[in-house]
Write a structure and sequence with these properties.
The chain is an alpha/beta fold. The protein is 45% helix and 11% strand. The N and C termini lie far apart (60 Å). Bound molecules: (2S,3S)-3-hydroxy-2-methylbutanoyl-COA (T1G). (2S,3S)-3-hydroxy-2-methylbutanoyl-COA binds next to strand 4 and helix 3.
Length: 653
């Protein structure tokens, strides 16, 4: 008889210590029941399982406790046949459990993966030893190094599952229809040989391993788990299964308490907290079936493509036929670029392009469910746009501004729908960057906010709520971050050295290179409007603006750029300009400051600004600020974000 064991621990059937205990008991019961010849393990709630409960890692580990490892060892010891019947996601420890079974069947919608590296871990329940035995070892290593999830179709191609089949919606009936071929034979993956790609001879393994280590970042720069993963897979190549498993367990246990894993687990939960807004009354989100964008510049076109990529028809409005034609050209150019890069098929690009309408008449936006303004960063221009929009757009529609700094309430004041008004601050390039700041005005309704968070998921954005305050969360902190960088340059530290120190700290890009990418004029205009900003009081911006050194767009900024190149070339003229300005201002020179001190000062300014933002209630939680800086400003994830980083620094001080 076949016994069905159903993983049923809502919401995602996570294999917590406590729940693993329950499942182990069910397996022991099946083992002790002679009438049971085979066992089908499946999942309820639309999931197989999301793997081990990540919350448990924060708990003190009780060695006598039960984990998924114990369940797997029981299956491995068993003489009965185990079938994993997968419907939905099977991730981490859950896929490792399935790998310990003799058969794996899955529905077409299933997704399978070992994403532990995204938590700064490695598979720690046999995955690094069984996966390279079941599928091509190189493919197995890449799958775990990227932490990628594969579709059922790809899993079948790889040999990760035996068959794709429809399964009864009722887990209890999932044994029926399982392939009876070999139903009666154990087929332990642990007994299989590691599957070397036909092109790789055994003597080449050390080279394969050495190459793999070269493809991942250094341990101190976020590569710790990756190097340990390669070590674990090397053990699969070189050692018998049980010794390889012991090596994996040791490497895994070394990572659980590691700083990068603590940081990445913090971000995992911080990201899932974002849409939980305390004190916000529950409200049913509206459906956004059509959208409009006013402004076809860099931001407007990126936003339009973001909606098209999500399958939401969008209309772009520009004031003249010439500007409409330019916006159309920009958008089709961006789609063609995606096709050239192989990220989109010609046909898909065409289809998405067709879902974008263009007009020079606001009336074309009349029936949109949402309209986003993305025009020049000037209050009176924006108010003019919203006054016109409020008159033509249907009453129930939501109006939003893509402003990156300006007062949302002042804009809403020119409309009759302040409760359906908010900020939706996208980051350039809007169709690439995952971050979206949702800015709540003083009258923005709970329904409008709920609609914005739901829309963000549709647009595959990570949305963070900000109160309506200058620069919201990200930019307010960025102005303090860059101010400290400028201060260091005024003290005689070349901008190139400041940037190099910040990249060494793990930032994707240094502050001065970011200035040049975003455009010096953007900061100059903001500074004109906010003389209270410390950055506004540094004379360097005025001098660069006067000299038309606006960054990459003019080939000169804090760096020089060769024609058509984005490569930043050190420019001593800038260092001399800083020296002149510093001399005039009587700034004490301190050129020999260390890289670590540079990073500490700049990140220190960031953290201080973050603390002020929390004090002022602009951000809800430190984790929200961390997510903004990870997804919007290239802060290194293995440090967990500026606020988590500061906590860790304090904890270890
Ligand atoms: N542990 C604990 N809670 C989890 C969880 C997990 N593994 N996965 C999800 N949740 C919670 C999440 O916090 C949220 O809670 C709710 O479930 C819904 O999640 C030995 C050690 C499964 C694809 O890395 O990728 O196994 O906010 O909002 O968009 O090798 O969650 O509602 O309170 O994300 O539908 C490896 C992580 C673990 C998978 C579902 N597994 N999860 O996405 O919903 S390490 C993972 C996900 C491991 C072994 C090692 C996604 C999802 P709340 P959600 P979703």
């Amino acid at each position: 008889m076949n016994k069905v064991i159903t993983l049923d621990n809502p919401p995602v059937n996570a294999l917590s210590f406590a729940y693993s205990e329950k499942i182990l008991k069910e397996i022991e019961a099946a083992e002790n029941d002679a009438s049971v010849t085979s066992v089908t393990i499946t999942g309820a709630n639309g999931y197989f399982s999301a793997g081990v409960d990540v919350n448990d890692f924060a708990k003190e580990w009780d060695p006598s406790g039960t984990t998924v490892r114990d369940i797997i060892e029981a299956i491995e010891r068993s003489g009965k046949v185990y079938i994993a019947a997968i419907d939905g996601v099977a991730l981490g420890g859950a896929l490792e459990l399935a790998l310990a079974c003799d058969r794996r069947v899955a529905t077409a919608r299933s997704k399978l993966g070992l994403p532990e590296i995204k938590l700064g871990l490695i598979p720690g329940a046999g995955g690094t030893q069984r996966l390279p035995r079941l599928i091509d070892a190189q493919a197995a290593l890449q799958m775990m190094l990227k932490g990628e999830t594969v579709s059922a179709e790809r899993a079948l191609e790889l040999g990760l599952i035996d068959v794709i089949m429809s399964l009864s919606n009722d887990p209890e009936h999932r044994a029926e229809g399982a392939p009876d071929e070999g139903t009666h034979t154990k087929r332990r993956v642990s007994e299989l040989k590691v599957k070397l790609p036909p092109s790789t001879q055994a003597f080449a393994l050390p080279y394969v391993i050495a190459q793999a280590h070269k493809t991942v970042p250094p341990e101190e720069s976020g590569g710790l788990a990756a190097h340990k993963l390669i070590d674990a897979v090397q053990a699969a190549f070189e050692l018998p299964f049980s010794r390889g498993l012991a090596r994996e367990y040791r490497l895994f246990d070394e990572l659980v308490g590691s700083a990068p894993s603590l940081a990445l687990r913090h971000l995992f939960f911080a990201e899932r907290e974002l849409s939980k807004i305390p004190s916000l009354p529950p409200a049913a989100p509206l459906e956004i079936k059509s959208a409009g964008v006013v402004g076809g510049g860099t931001m407007g076109t990126g936003i339009a493509i973001t909606f098209a990529n999500a399958g939401i028809p969008v209309t772009v409005v520009e004031p003249s036929a010439e500007q409409v034609a330019k916006a159309r050209q920009t958008i089709f150019g961006m789609f063609m670029h995606q096709v050239k890069r192989g990220r989109l098929t010609q046909e898909e690009a065409w289809k998405r392009g067709q879902s974008i309408e263009f007009s020079d008449d606001y009336a074309a936006l009349g029936e949109c469910d949402l309209v986003i303004e993305a025009v020049f960063e000037n209050m009176s221009v924006k108010k003019e746009v919203f006054a016109k929009l409020d008159a033509v757009v249907k009453p129930g529609a939501i109006l939003a501004s893509n402003t990156s700094t300006l007062d949302i309430d002042e804009m809403a004041s020119v409309t009759k729908r302040p409760e359906q008004f908010l900020g939706l601050h996208f980051f350039a390039p809007a169709n690439i960057m995952k971050l979206l700041e949702i800015v709540r005005g003083k009258s923005t309704s709970a329904q409008t906010l709920a609609t914005a968070f739901k829309l963000a998921k549709q647009l595959r954005k990570v949305a963070v709520l900000s109160a309506n305050a200058f620069g919201f969360i990200g930019n307010r902190m960025f102005f303090e971050y860059t101010r400290e960088a400028v201060a260091l340059a005024e003290e005689g530290v070349p901008p190139a050295r400041v940037d190099a120190a910040m990249k060494k700290f793990g930032m994707a890009m240094g502050p001065f290179a970011t200035f040049d990418l975003s455009g010096i004029d953007v900061f100059w205009h903001v500074a004109q409007g906010r003389p209270d900003l410390a950055l506004a009081r540094t004379p360097i911006l005025d001098r660069l603006y006067e000299q038309k050194r606006l960054g990459q767009k003019t080939g000169k900024g804090f760096y020089t750029y060769a024609e058509g190149s984005r490569e930043a070339i050190r420019d001593e003229e800038i260092e001399q300009l800083f020296a002149q300005l510093a001399k005039k201002a009587g700034v004490t020179q301190n050129p020999d400051v260390s890289d670590a001190e540079i990073a500490q000062r700049i990140v220190g300014a960031l953290i201080k600004s973050g603390e002020e933002i929390l004090r002022d209630g602009v951000a809800l939680r430190p984790g929200d600020i961390d997510i903004v800086w990870i997804y919007g400003y290239g802060f290194p994830p293995y440090r967990g974000g500026p606020m988590f980083h500061s906590q860790q620094e304090l904890a270890h001080a």
